[in-house]
Amino acid sequence: MIRRSLAALGAAMLIVPLAAPTAAHAAGRAGAAVDVPCPKPKVAPPPNRPPRPVPPADDPVGSAIGGDALATHGLVIPAGARQPPAVTATTWMVADLDTGEVLGGCGPHVFQTPASVQKTLLAATVIDKLDPKQRITVARSDLDIEPGSSAVGLVVGGQYPISTLWLGLMLNSGNDAANALARLAGGGGPDGVAKTVAAMNANAKRLGAYQTHAVTPSGLDGPGQFTSAYDLALIARVCFANADFRRYVLTKSAQMPAQPKLKKGGFQFQNENKLIFNYPGALGGKTGFTTVARHSYVGAAERNGRRLVVTLLGAEARPQRGWQQGAALLDWGFAQPRDESVGKLVAPGDLAPAAPTPKPAPAAPQAAATRSDRDDSSQPLSFVAAVTVALVLAATPLLLLLTQRRRRRPGRRTR
Asked: Is residue 173 flagged as an active site residue?
């Protein structure tokens, strides 16, 4: 049953890899058809672009979350929809913040490195747990960030309202602010950041963001750190449901308070997300960049009572910057009829939790051996039972995902 279901999933996809696949990717996508290429501008990549980290192998179950049409490395749009704009983003997605309908995307579940858009996961995880009026004293470890990376200018020993740190995080992409917020949310001790990163990963799984794994609270590159355009839309939906978050990301400029005891003056800092200055109906969002991840972007806007979110990863800044690519994709999304859809943003309760593992029967005295020296061939019935249980548990989430059929089947454009 599992093998037939996977074959059916592969038959529903069209696949042209965005880049040469690794052996693990090829193994994970065996039996898949050819994807529709995503529209790309004819520009050469920068010569100094470093190689991207090798992502995990594709997961057929995780790639079909939200609908089996989303399990593609290529373009997925509604039948008859006009071609989306050509952007340099390696992957992207446009979705409705309110209904959760996915309007279209390019490799929505493909693993990518996040850069600073990962700060939205930090916000989705702890913004409700921290009092914006509370003041925090900055520790030396909060400034332990990659040299040359973005910082809002916190000083060791300085005291700041939590609301100011959120503004420094969202407007100026302060990695120092990310560390301070994560440390406080994790209890304030030396293990506070690690505890918050663990909470971020647990929250990602709760939301259904199964391609997301955080290593740093800021999005600074770390081994094994990945996300996807689909996951970022799930996370953004949580963020934009929070009134404080909406207020922070729409703030055009803010003031960093002076620290008289430390003889440090205050200063003003600006919102780096140019969408709020240039796009009618902009709701805000988050920019991101590292030399490894390249440009990433999350942005949202409202038009005629309809709120859309765009997420993109792995973009170059020419011929358009990340927010401009986001604006072009938002325009494309707003031009789509309201009832068009290629998938769905799942809600936290939509994915059935795994069944509890059955407790093993008490072992007979002669079977009380360690795993390394036990001869499993003397217990054929127990082995068969264990395999049967494993197959049932593995098949359950896959079958649930494959039954999430959309009201309208998406079309695939070849031009």
From this structure: yes
Known catalytic residue at 341: no
- Catalytic option among 63, 119, 163, 228: 119
- The alpha carbon torsion through 244, 247, 252, 254 (nearest 10 deg) reads -40
pLDDT tens per residue across all 415 residues of the chain: 322 222 332 333 333 333 333 333 433 444 456 899 999 999 888 888 888 899 999 988 899 999 999 999 999 999 999 999 999 999 999 999 999 999 999 999 999 999 999 999 999 999 999 999 999 999 999 999 999 999 999 999 999 999 999 999 999 999 999 999 999 999 999 999 999 999 999 999 999 999 999 999 999 999 999 999 999 999 999 999 999 999 999 999 999 999 999 999 999 999 999 999 999 999 999 999 999 999 999 999 999 999 999 999 999 999 999 999 999 999 999 999 998 999 999 998 788 654 333 343 443 333 333 333 333 333 333 333 443 434 444 444 444 444 444 444 444 333 3
Point out the catalytic residue in the list 116, 218, 296, 341.
Answer: 116
- Residue 5 annotated to the active site: no
Nearest to 191 by CA among 169, 217, 171: 217
Q: The whole model's pTM is what?
A: 0.79
Task: Pick the closest to residue 285 from 298, 301, 269, 303 (CA basis).
Answer: 298
- Cis upstream peptide for 319 (omega within 30°): yes
